[in-house]
Backbone:
């Protein structure tokens, strides 16, 4: 009997093309784990000759809900991903295991597996393996930051192994960056952070530190763009301030954009959402396209 190929080497699905010329490959498996739902991503590819740079997008939802299909409630479906593709940057929006499916560091292992998969299939996909960035919102911003800050010791063995899981630029919208200080009560086992870690942050301080981007700030980090509303009631603006300070101290190029009056997920602030996407596009264009335009 002939066994099917591993998920990460399965044939690509047929692409559909939007009215604006963006090619979309939906539901592409990048890894599979026994007893778990398939790990899939949607790929938005620019028209024209490649290879194109690519940004990995990681959704929010407190690590316990959410999906690859949205960049947040202020945006219509995949519109932000298609907008970036129209600007010449491919987007790989991915699902990862949620905290109810697996605890830390499974989420980061999945994100790193997606980066490796992109590099392993780069020629076939028409993307540039040397120009891979990360972008995420909320919990996804936390994971995007960790993609930029952690090394092989947190790679895991999900999916294809071999290619690097590094990224050359990071955008994080309102990310949790120090898990011991996000919850009002770090001993509460019902918080999002406790569900991610499998225990209250106060009970597993070393694990909470390992899962915190501020712990990993260092001189080898790529450029960062942090965007955060100063009225965020879920993940306080202080979280981006902490990472900004840590990266600055390490000598990493980092910019913190504070959006006045904006709440978490830019709720009630469509102008803030539009500004965030504009600043994100400009940052990624600068670092991924640069002299390639």
Residues:
């Amino acid at each position: 009997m002939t066994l099917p190929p591993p998920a990460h080497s399965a044939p690509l699905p047929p692409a559909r093309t939007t009215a604006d010329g963006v090619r979309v490959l939906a539901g592409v498996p990048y890894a599979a784990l026994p007893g778990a739902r398939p790990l899939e991503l949607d790929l938005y590819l620019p028209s024209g000759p490649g290879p194109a740079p690519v940004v990995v997008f990681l959704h929010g939802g407190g690590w316990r809900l959410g999906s690859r299909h949205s960049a947040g409630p202020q945006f219509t479906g995949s519109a932000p991903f298609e907008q970036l593709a129209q600007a010449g940057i491919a987007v790989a929006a991915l699902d990862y295991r949620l905290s109810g499916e697996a605890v830390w560091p499974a989420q980061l292992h999945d994100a790193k597996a997606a980066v490796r998969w992109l590099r392993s299939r780069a020629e076939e996909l028409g993307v540039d393996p040397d120009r891979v960035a990360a972008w995420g919102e909320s919990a996804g911003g936390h994971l995007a930051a960790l993609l930029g800050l952690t090394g092989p010791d947190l790679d895991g063995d999900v999916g294809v192994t071999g290619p690097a899981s590094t990224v050359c630029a990071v955008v994080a919208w309102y990310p949790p960056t120090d898990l011991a200080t996000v919850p009002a009560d770090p001993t509460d086992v019902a918080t999002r952070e406790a569900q991610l870690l499998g225990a209250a942050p106060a009970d597993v301080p070393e694990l909470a530190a390992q899962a915190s981007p501020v712990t990993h700030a260092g001189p080898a980090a790529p450029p960062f763009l942090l965007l955060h509303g100063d009225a965020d009631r879920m993940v306080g603006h202080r979280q981006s301030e902490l990472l900004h300070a840590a990266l600055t101290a390490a000598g990493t190029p980092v910019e913190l954009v504070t959006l006045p009056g904006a709440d978490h997920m830019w709720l009630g602030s469509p102008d803030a959402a539009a500004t965030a996407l504009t600043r994100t596009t400009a940052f990624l264009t600068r670092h991924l396209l640069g002299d390639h335009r």
The chain has a mean pLDDT of 95. The longest strand covers residues 127-137. The helical segments are 79-86, 106-120, 122-125, 139-149, 192-197, 205-210, 238-250, 270-289. The CA atoms of residues 135 and 171 lie 5 Å apart.
